[in-house]
Amino acid sequence: MSPRPPTLREKRRYILARIEPAGILLEQKDLYYAISDATTSLWGDATTAIITPAVVALEHGYVVVRCRRGTERELAIALSTVTACRDVHICLQIVAASGTIESLRSRFRKKGPHKKETEPAVAGNGAGEEPVLPECTFAKKTFLIVQCNGQKVDVIEKGFKNTNRLFLTKDDLEDLNATTISDRI
Amino acid sequence: MKITDAAVYPYPLGDASVRRLALQAEALGFDSIVVADAPSGTYEGVEVRSGLMIRDVPIKDVIAAVKRYRDSGRVISVNAANNSFNRAAIGVKGMHILRGIQNADKLAFDHVAAKMASDNRVAVDIDLSPIIMGRSVARQRAIHRYMDIMVLEQRFEFPITLSTHARSLLDMRNVRDVAGLCSLIGMDVPDVERALAGVGTVLTPVEPSVKVIA
User: Fold this and answer.
1) Which of B9, B20, B165 should one mutate to test binding to chain A, selecting the residue with the greatest count of A CBs within 10 A?
2) CB distance from B125 to chain A under 8 Å?
3) What is the pLDDT of residues A124-159, one digit of tens each?
């Protein structure tokens, strides 16, 4: 079967979105199901069939979602209602829309992937042992730093009971009474 | 005009510190945020306004709380209940925002309450969280209620505020997403701009219509 000539092909657009929180690992297929579910839930089957959302790339914390030309607005609204992927709380922040995947790729290559300043220190000889994450104290509790980028610090409470991520800043960790903004800021 | 998210919840109600919420708000295009139960301040150019959310209390307690805090500079909001409660709450001097209208009963906010809100400059909050996180009936009901509120707003021109009610950093949305979500309830771009500036509108003191010069 010969491919359709370009003039007869369906016109498509691509939306680049950043996945938050940074450093989270997702499967492309799971993300497709999450986006498809959000789109169908918001617009219904008939409009979703027109939008035809598809995840075409998932790289460096960014996702490229394809849609039919003219339905970018509908897809963008649907993407803002994506809140979870396989029970992992996520958020998609739209960065740009384009007619080619390559221009979007160049855009996130220019921006760079989510930077990870804090690399976990490797314990012992580094062979098969759990990496040791740096610790910090906040609101009289001990946390492990899982992500650190500029002012932003993501932490998880030490222990096995609470594995939810907390979003803090470096100022919070320096300030002993940091659950609120003090008057001196 | 300050672009404001009218309600976010920091740690321990949410999972982010006030500073981190302010950083995120700045990245998302907001100039200020109303934070529940936190002191006011400015961080990285984002104004953090202290918010007082009054909920599930009788009207006499609402009056007492508003009287106590109305000169404190806080953004005072009351959760909507039935029609008589809402009318009484809107009439309280110093009250700024009526919230949770999507959870109140169908007749909780009628044309009389809308006229009172317009006269007293009390805003009605559009909580975007049921549209973002809700699915099926919950979302449909919220959209329907907000569309009804917008019909009254077009007629009586009371202030509107927009809030994400984010309990997590990941629940906050950027200004463009907010505009897109608001288009679902029939708000166009000028409506959204006005609503994003709604907190500033209700906090600005009313200029008297007649000025005594001498």
Assistant:
1) B20
2) no
3) 444 455 566 788 888 778 888 888 888 888 988 887
- Are residues B41 and A152, on separate chains, in Cβ contact within 8 Å? no
Cα–Cα distances in Å, from A175 out to A101, A179, B33?
44, 9, 21
Mutant choice from B17, B20, B34 vs A, greatest count of A C-beta within 10 A: B17
DSSP letter at A94 equals E
Secondary structure (H, E, C), A6-69: HHHCCCEEEEEEEEECCCCCCCHHHHHHHHHHHHHHHHHHHHHHHHCCEEEEEECCEEEEEEEC
Q: Do strands B123-127 and B160-163 pair parallel, antiparallel, or not at all (unpaired)?
A: parallel
Residue A182 distance to chain B (closest CA, Å): 8
Q: What is the least distance, in Å, from the CA of B7 to any CA of chain A?
A: 16
Could you report the predicted ipTM of this complex, rounded to two decimals? Answer: 0.90
User: For residues B103 and B4, what is the distance between their CA atoms, to the nearest angstrom?
Assistant: 23
Of B42, B135, B180, the CB nearest to A41: B135
Percent of chain B at pLDDT > 90 equals 83
pTM over the 0.80 mark: yes
Q: Could you tell me which of A20, A141, A22, A85 has the C-alpha nearest to residue B11? A: A141
Minimum CA–CA partner of A157 in chain B: B15
Minimal Cβ distance to B180: which of A21, A80, A182: A80
Q: Which residues contact B104 (CB under 8 A, 6 or more apart)?
A: B80, B81, B82, B86
pLDDT, tens digit, 9 for 90 and up, residues B78-118: 999 999 999 999 999 999 999 999 999 888 999 999 999 99
- Closest CA of chain B from A130, distance in Å: 26
Tokens 């000169």 identify what position? B71
* A165: β partners: A156
What is the C-alpha separation between A149 and A151, in angstroms, rounded? 6
Q: What DSSP element (H or E) covers B52? A: strand B46-54
Please judge whether B39 and A180 are an interchain contact, meaning their C-beta atoms are less than 8 angstroms apart. yes
Amino acid at A31: L
At A136, give phi and psi (nearest 5°): -150, 170
